[in-house]
């Protein structure tokens, strides 16, 4: 019993737990729109662009978050412009834009060997790597995103369900698209240190698709996704300490377990 | 509930309905890049009309709707809706019902949530419904016969109820003009009949209606005015006047048979496949 309660005595663990709960809440809420807009691959791509951007930024003496934000936003805007103005589809545009930025980051890492340790932590998430600055960034982005999603609930829902009709009914769909791209990019960037580049996509998608199986109502889906996201974040972070593995992997594995159990229950109920 | 509906419809009916055209296109050329779909189209639709646009696939019907709805800009020419440039009209002036085939039926929304979307541009930012909004939605759902399925997912209702749900979303914002993209496609003949009768009732309450369809028989038996379109206007008038062999052949580019039977027009292709002969 003492072993199970031991991690709660450590400051770094409590910081990690708080960060994981907030990232889970954030990704749960944003993930609903990502899944329903058919953008599941976007989270994966943006996380790669952001980490590439962070490395490029550091070489220019910028902060980790500044480089990640600039390149993440540039990637989101470039993807948007390419798909709007050509016959290139979303998945292909994500593939070329974000991988190119990631490749540039990897090239810099290969040249400057002192980057390697941080880079590996950013790939899979690191419970020890959560600083006070990270906590502040995660809290700020979570609050801003939830407030924006609350007050833009109606326009976000309409433009996600039926983009063209929303525009005809007077919704400023271009503004909504830009706002959503911004929120998604910010969410991916602040999640990097907790879940890692390779795990962000699953952190966004798993709570949303689990919630979708349990409800046919949009508002309930958002609430359930937030609940699943925060619970899997907390439990995943705890398991990361217990089994001494990267936090991103335990969070994703635990959300996948919850998803699998829900899927089985869903299939059994339908029979 | 009926009283609420009457109050709602009085508010919908514009007092200046007859004072100007609902839709006015002047010298409109439309297309995609270098591909021109139609040139120099001028068209005026008076307030209170109920009009169907018919024409073959890829004849420019959808492009015409997109131009009127302001989704696609005209290359040249002007488009005015109720005397306002398209796009500058107050949100909610135009109600729109998309093709049912274009709707994502797996999306997690209930009938009530779909109807709610029509109210999303009324300046209210709270996610939940106000008491007034809830009363409006319930009155509209009751009027259109979807009250009992308000809390059902959209995939669990019939084709007719789906069409009525999207019609309710279009009407809830009290539009002066209602535009429907192929409301008769993907539904059975009975539902088609119900939907067109319902649209007739809505039109009698003062709302201008413009729809596109491929179903000439449905147009002939339900709509008072029709436009034959094929990369430009071929003809417009009452179905009994313009559904002639000459005009329909010009519109569709193939021989068409028109039969008058007990006051109804029946339109069919002149060269059907005869399976009975093949089996002999």
Question: Overview of this structure, please?
Answer:
The complex is a heterodimer of chains A (271) and B (280). With 271 residues, chain A is mainly alpha-helical. Chain A has one domain: ABC transporter involved in vitamin B12 uptake, BtuC, CATH 1.10.3470. Chain A is built from 13 helices and no strands. In chain A, helix 2 runs antiparallel to helix 10 (173-195), helix 4 (64-85) crosses helix 10 and helix 12 (218-243) crosses helix 13 (247-270). Chain A starts with a helix and ends with a helix. The mean pLDDT of chain A is 87. By secondary structure, chain B is an alpha/beta fold. Chain B has one domain (2-278): P-loop containing nucleotide triphosphate hydrolases (Rossmann fold). Chain B is built from ten helices and twelve strands. Chain B has helices spanning 2-12, 61-69, 111-117, 131-144, 159-171, 189-204, 216-222, 239-242, 245-252, 275-278, and strands at residues 21-32, 35-46, 50-54, 76-81, 84-85, 94-97, 177-181, 208-213, 225-229, 233-237, 256-261, 264-269. In chain B, the strands form three sheets. A six-stranded mixed β-sheet of chain B has the order 6-7-8-3-9-10, with helices on both faces. A four-stranded antiparallel β-sheet of chain B has the order 2-1-4-5, covered by helices on one side. In chain B, strands 11-12 form a two-stranded antiparallel ribbon. In chain B, strand 4 and strand 5 (84-85) form a beta hairpin. In chain B, helix 4 packs across helix 5 (159-171). The longest helix of chain B has 16 residues, at 189-204. The radius of gyration of chain B is 20 Å and the shape is globular. The N and C termini of chain B lie far apart (61 Å). Mean pLDDT of chain B is 84; it is low at 7-18. At the A-B interface, helix 8, helix 9 and helix 12 of A face helix 3 of B.
